[in-house]
Design a protein that fits this description.
Elements lengths: L1 H35 L6 E2 L4 E3 L5 E3 L7 E7 L4 H17 L4 E7 L5 H10 L6 E3 L2 H6 L8 E5 L4 E7 L4 H13 L1
Parallel strand pairs: 4-5, 5-6
Antiparallel strand pairs: 1-8, 2-3, 4-7, 7-8
Length: 179
């Protein structure tokens, strides 16, 4: 009887471990795929045109030839706040080689509080306000943060929902810059 209980207990432990590993792999696969270059050939980036908080107009069509990271975020979102310093670091290191980061704030309070937030944190990459239309052309945003990496040819190569860690981001951007 003891052996049977021990067997069932170990079987349950193995099943729980397998479920946890499967969940972790499913959750982190998009980030890992972007970092190592696995996966898709890409689909054309949507026709996005926005006015940044600084008053500049940016369009994805006008950014062809550059590697573009589009990040949907909000000031109230803890993972968004956590990834922004890494985005800023990678931006500073790679902007002269052709990286553009465009943050699209989903905050409802308008541009003034968002501008104050990014100034206070030293964020220098372009920020614009997202709209429902903007979110729709990207296929709908189901979680924040959501990040799209677009290659020099204007193809969406990777989408990462949730925190995009600096090491994975750095590797993914570097690989796309070298293509």
């Amino acid at each position: 009887m003891q052996i049977r209980k021990l067997f069932h207990s170990r079987l349950l432990d193995a099943g729980l471990l397998a479920a946890a590993l499967t969940l972790a792999a499913w959750r982190f696969w998009p980030q890992l795929a972007a970092a190592v270059g696995a996966g898709r050939a890409g689909s054309p980036a949507p026709a996005l045109r926005v006015q940044t908080l600084r008053g500049d107009t940016l369009s994805l069509a006008g950014l062809r030839g550059k590697v573009v990271l589009v990040n949907f975020w909000a000031t109230w979102c803890p993972p968004c706040r956590a990834e922004m310093p890494g985005f800023q670091h990678v931006y500073e290191q790679k902007k002269d080689r052709g990286l553009v980061i465009l943050g699209l704030s989903t905050d409802d309070d308008g541009p003034l509080p968002v501008a104050g937030y990014i100034i206070a944190r030293g964020i220098t990459y372009p920020i614009a306000m997202s709209t429902l239309d903007t979110e729709h052309i990207f296929g709908g945003i189901r979680a924040l943060p959501t990040t799209f990496l677009i290659d020099r040819a204007g193809r969406v190569r990777y989408q990462v929902q949730g925190l995009f860690t600096r090491p994975a981001l750095d590797q993914a951007v570097e690989r796309l810059l070298e293509e």
